Each structure stands twice: as structure tokens, then as C-alpha cells.
Amino acid sequence: MTESPSRKMDERRLFNQNQQQIKLNNQNHEYYQIQGEDNDEIDFDESVQQNINDNNQQIFSDNDDSFEQMQDQDQDDFIDLDEDEQSPKRFLDNLDKRTKIISLSPDKKSQSSIENDENTQSSYSLEKVVGLMMLKKDRKIPNSVYKPHSEEVFIVVSSFFSNSSSGFQRILFPYPKYCQRTDTAPSFLQIDHPQLYDPKYYMIKVYAQSELKKNKLQLGFKMTDSTHIYNSVVNTMKNAGVRIVAPNTSKWNVTWTGITKPELLREMFRYQRVNHFPQSFHLGRKDLMWKNIYKMKRQYQSDYDICPQTYLLPDDYKKLVADREAEGNKNLYILKPNASSCGKGISVLGPQDPIPKKGGYLVSKYLAHPHLIDGLKYDLRIYVLVTSYDPLKIYLFREGLVRFATEKYSTNPNNLKKRFIHLTNYSVNKKAEGYVRNQDKVGGDNNLDEERSSKWNLLQLKKQFDKLGIDYSQVKGRIKDVIIKTLISVEPHIMNSMTRCTRHRNVCFEVYGFDILLDAKLKPWLLEVNISPSLSSSSPLDKKIKTMLICDTLNLTGVQPFDKKKTLKEQEQQLRNRLLGLNKSPKSRGKSFEYLGGDGCEKIMKIMDQPLCEDELQIIVDYEEEQLRKGNFDLIFPLPLNVPYYSQFFEFPRTGNETLWKYIRILTAQKNNQNIGSQN
């Protein structure tokens, strides 16, 4: 029976009335993405099956597999990857044009289906489904949207804090089952310094959700509309027992956003975490990144030869023309937008191609002799975590992605415009006939399909290097050098903003996606840094790597459950101490032990063999606790062997750096003396 036009208009009006409420809650859903720096992949439904009824509307499936993985041909039917970054309103408007509501019967058992364009497979739009559910439930989002997957929460208990403080607890983020890892909670602990750690002070406690609520400990996760909604992030939170909270509440432990605003930083508690540092666009914008590196290159010459020579248009136009003529117009260049991603707006310029004068673009020397595998150009996506800039602490994730172009490499003038030859971006090459999806759910297994795929993990690259007789560890060491120098170059900007905007030193963390290209001599070159790297699950390989990345990031960052009222009292006491200068005085260390206490802190004091003020002790405690929770991350700075070299590149001395570097030197010296004594 055909519905009347008036009935359809009424249904549409009811649905539109809920659009605003939906948008306020859209960060709670993981079907689509909104904005970001590196939007080259999109999460989609793997099973695309939802059973909706009056009693149970389960949006996120308990097995973490819902809303993942459609085929590539279906992805573009929902979001045009070549469009500019979309606001939530624009996204919803575009989505609304592509879908049609078939049934909205509030008086019947909720049965809804959504038809897509004729050439696409039938699927549910999460936004539409939630809209239908809100109509049925008197415009209220059902609790199942917010509800965590896990009824149990694992807490790591630390010996560096007194039991009277909530600071001694850290939420454990276990890997979901689809990561196919056998890690259990106890094996998560990594003891690097046995002289500091006693197992009886490091234990895993398991709490039921009801116990946490009874103790007034909050576990809240908030996402803003300036970021993408990623399965890997949302599932990690819900799998750990963390509840998604409303966007207007202050009761949260972690906020996942696209931009960290100063007002957010000023309002944060000591136990809260946000996923970006302020001013990180100095790293994420290609033009600003080059300015920072070029400034260091002028001062340190070949030490900072880590990025291809770049010219910013229109300011450097005359210099570019002069350099090009001096080279005899023989070299290739590459034109890029200053602030774009997914290969949009990029073109290779031949010797005779004109150079545009328009602003908003940069031109770099094209690395015309890249290292090739099976005749294909490739680049590396390396994941890096910074947990603090004061002191600077840099961690390298052991896994990453190797992204291949899909046509044999050639610098023939007739092929310069062929993007499948010269660009390695997923969003470009997924449209090529030669693109092969990596369907390996484990990653690193030896099978023919995996070797032919257009995306590898780093373990596969290592195996290939071993076959070719290439020293993978040596190449990796050079990549670490590029990463450390790049982050040091932007440290002054971020520290200046942190000093002005934050009350607490370690409330921010940030995951970076470094794009590295190896030339024919295996020298790594920095292409760009994504401050919001794509975390989508476009293949089983992506799904595993990126979920593990988020789990380990949150574990290493140290997310803490806390009582808001108790925290406010703590902050008031700390503010009084700061105003009185007590936190800077070694004599106040007794006061510090009100929340910094236990045998761990006592052992640190003995190692340093000198009084430490509260701030100094907290810096060392943070460092030691992070070494306990590294997971698949490796600390690459500071290390005893590289601090003497990299310390010369810092523009200003920082108390945090000096304190941590001194502690590392003393700890290393004591360990070396113990080794010598044991040998004798």
C-alpha cells in the first residue's frame, strides 16, 4: 500500500525536528566521519545488520564488528572523498539527499529500512536509525548508544601514589578480540627498572561498573564535532568500560577532538586528557612545517637535511625560478596545497611546466629516485606518540603502514600526470585497477595475496628488506632521527602555547602520522606530518593496527578515573601551594607525598640522592609510569645515548627536560656500575 504525500511530509517534519538533537549527539556514533587532517579512509559496516525493537536498540555490537568495512565501490556512494572537509550540517544534508525513509510508524513495532541509490547495496545509516529510535523513544537517545561494551573495568594500581589519592589508578584498555592478540591484563605490565618496581605495588584490580559508580569514580569519553568518528577509537573506549558522555558535560576523562581550544585547556582537571597539543598546526600544515625545519636547517646545516627543498608561493616564486634555471631546468618538482590531504591538488611539474604564482601552495623538489619494491613507488606511514613536550617524550609505534602506488614507476615526461605512478595515497590508488586490498586479518602472515596487496605493515617491509639484504634496523634508526628533529623544531611554538593556556603540564597527548619516503640510497625524507592521521578500518590490516595503536596510546597516556568533587579540593590545595611557592621548595616534599607517595617515590629520591620538589618528582614519576605501560610503543627520546646529541637543537633550556635527562643519566650510571660489579 502506497503512503499518502501528506503522511510522508508529516514523517519528514518529525524527522527534521530531531536533526538538531541528532547533531548534538553525533559524536556518539561511528558510521561516518566529519572533519580531520588525514581523511583518506572511511569506516563502514561489515555486517550491516541491526535488529531494532522496543526493548533493546543495540547500536554498537558487543563483538566490536559492527559498522565496519563495506567494499570500496560502496564507500563513495555515501561520502565523496574528493569534496572539501565537511561540517556536520553539510554531511547530514548530503546524506539526507542520498537516503529515503521507507517506514516511520510510531504505533507499530519499530521496523525501518533505508534505501540507498539504485547501484549500491542496501544498508542502514546509523544517523537515520538513531533518528527513528528517537521518534519511538520520545526523542531520547537510548541508553545502549552510551553504554560500554564491558561491565568490568581493569585498573592498574601504581606504587608511586598514596592510597588516599585517585591518582594511583590507571584505566587499562585491553585489545578487542578482533586484534587476535593473546595479551592478558597482567602481561601488559613491562618492568624495565626492577630496582624501582615491586610486583606487589603493581597490580590489576577489576571493578564492576556499579562499584565505580558507588565510589563516584567517573569513566567518560567525549568526542567533538571537529573530528572524525572512528570505530577504532569508540570501540577501544567502550571495550574498556568507558561510557560515551554528552558533549556539554564536564564529567569526562578523555576528549577526542580535532582542535584543542585554549578555553578547553584552561578548564581541564589534572586527571583529564585531550588528544591534541595547542598550536600543533605548526606541524600539520605543510608550509609551517617547512618554515620550522628550514629555520633549523639554516642554523645546523646538514644535520637538518631531512626534508626536500621547498618554496612557499607566492613569496618564494622568484627564488624558485632562479634555482630552477641554475639547475638547467632538469629537475622535477611537485606542487602541493599548504593545507590539504588525500592527494588533493598535487601535481608533478616537469622541466618545461610553468610554475603557478598563486598563494596557498608550495613547491618541493621531487624525489625522482625513490627506493622501489617490484618496480613500485611506496611511502611509509609511521605512528608517533608524544605524551609531553615538557619534558619532550617521544614514542614510536612498532607497527605502521607501507602504501604502494599501483603502476610501475617512471619519470618519462609522458607519465608525469599519471597519479597512480607518482602518488601513494590510499584515496588516490583505491580507484586504480591495480589496487589490491590487504585482507590479512593478522598482518605479517606469509601468503601470496598479502605480498601482492597495495598496503603492507612494517613487519612485511622488514621481511622484504631481509630478502633484499637491507639492514632494516639501520633504516629505522635514520627514520627515528627524522622524527626527533622534526618534533624539536616545533617545540618552542607548542611550549609557548602550553605555558599560556594550561594549568597542568601533562593533560595533552598527540598521535602523529609521519609520512616518510625512502630514496634509492635508503635515506628517509619527511614528506608531511598528519596531526589527525586516519584511524579508519578500511581493511582487516588497518583495523588491527589502528585499534592496537589507540589501545596502547590510551594505556601509555595514563587515563585516570576520578571523583570530580575530590579533584576540585586537590586542585584548590595545589593552587594554594603554588601561590605560596611550596611546590618549588624541596622542603615541601612532605606535602607532595599527600598524593605522591609510596615506595616508588622513596626509591626515586634515593636514586637522585637529593631533595626534589613536587614538580620535579612528578616529572620523574610520569616517566617511570609510562615505561610500565608502553605496550607496542618504544621510547625513542630521551634515551641515555641520544640526549647529548639532540639536546643541542633545543632553542631554550627547560626545567622539565633538565630534570628528566639528569635522572636518566644517574639511573644509567647506576645500572652500568651494577653490571660491572656483577661481572667482577
From TrEMBL:
GO terms, biological process: microtubule cytoskeleton organization
InterPro entries recorded: TTL/TTLL_fam
Keywords carried by this UniProt record: ATP-binding, Ligase, Nucleotide-binding
GO CC terms, sorted: ciliary basal body
SUPFAM superfamilies: Glutathione synthetase ATP-binding domain-like
Reactions accelerated catalytically: L-glutamyl-[protein] + L-glutamate + ATP = gamma-L-glutamyl-L-glutamyl-[protein] + ADP + phosphate + H(+)
Keyword Acetylation: no
Pfam families cross-referenced by the UniProt entry: TTL
Molecular functions per Gene Ontology: ATP binding; tubulin binding; tubulin-glutamic acid ligase activity
Protein name per Swiss-Prot or TrEMBL: Tubulin--tyrosine ligase-like protein 5
Species in which this protein is naturally found: Stylonychia lemnae (Ciliate)
Gene this chain is encoded by: Contig14898.g15866
